[in-house]
Amino acid sequence: GDAATMSSLARCRNLDPKFERTVLIRNKLDKYYKDLTPDTVSKWVDGFGDLPDHLPRFALTLPFWLEGTEPPKPFRDLTKDMDAEDMAQMKQRGLSEKYLKTIGFSNFTAFMESRIETMFGDAIGRVLGGLKDLKEVADSELDGLAAEYQDTDPKRIVSTVRDCGVSFAMALTPVMEGVLELQPVQNLEDELREFHEYHQALGSNHFSTKPADEFAGLGDYIHYLRDQLQMPTFDVEVNGGAQFRRLMFEVEIFLR
Fold it and tell me: pTM score > 0.90 for this model?
């Protein structure tokens, strides 16, 4: 091929290394009419073997007229005239049917129409796939908004709050009754002795550690609770609410 053609292809190769999207168009074909002969015309159209075999190529003449003057015909008519002249000139020089399909504007437009149709067909599948994905996302968001709208209905919120309150209230029962096999647990004697040891270590003197002067000390008070009063659950190791209720019972006895 000529230097201009090869220079243009070199620039195209930077963006399209395999020429998968490139279409070569050589215009001003009319300037080569006189130089082409039956021996050279096919070789020229084929680029003298310098063009890649899979590269689509076209040669054509575009409409032209003298600068500063009006077009002699409408542009569409001039295009048809140039196309017919290109075909006639190349046939006159013996160009084979194989290469005649690459000559003239009409063959170029037919090729591009087919090429665009093929490209559109290849791309429409991906476009439809993308639209399908967007629809699925939108449907999912719509379902979420519908559920959120239903859950935020005032009547439903009131019902949900009531259910939560009932569940919480019912959960207090096992807590107040204590939980079996849950540590730590204490009987009342250990609890009272630990309480006294703690306040002795602190040096607390703002309250009496005996319910009455008749008690010599903590041991007498423990003996009274266990043996004389026979306080329920005195020796039972409990926790939680059961331990709290036993404490309240002991406090009531202490204050009497």
Answer: no
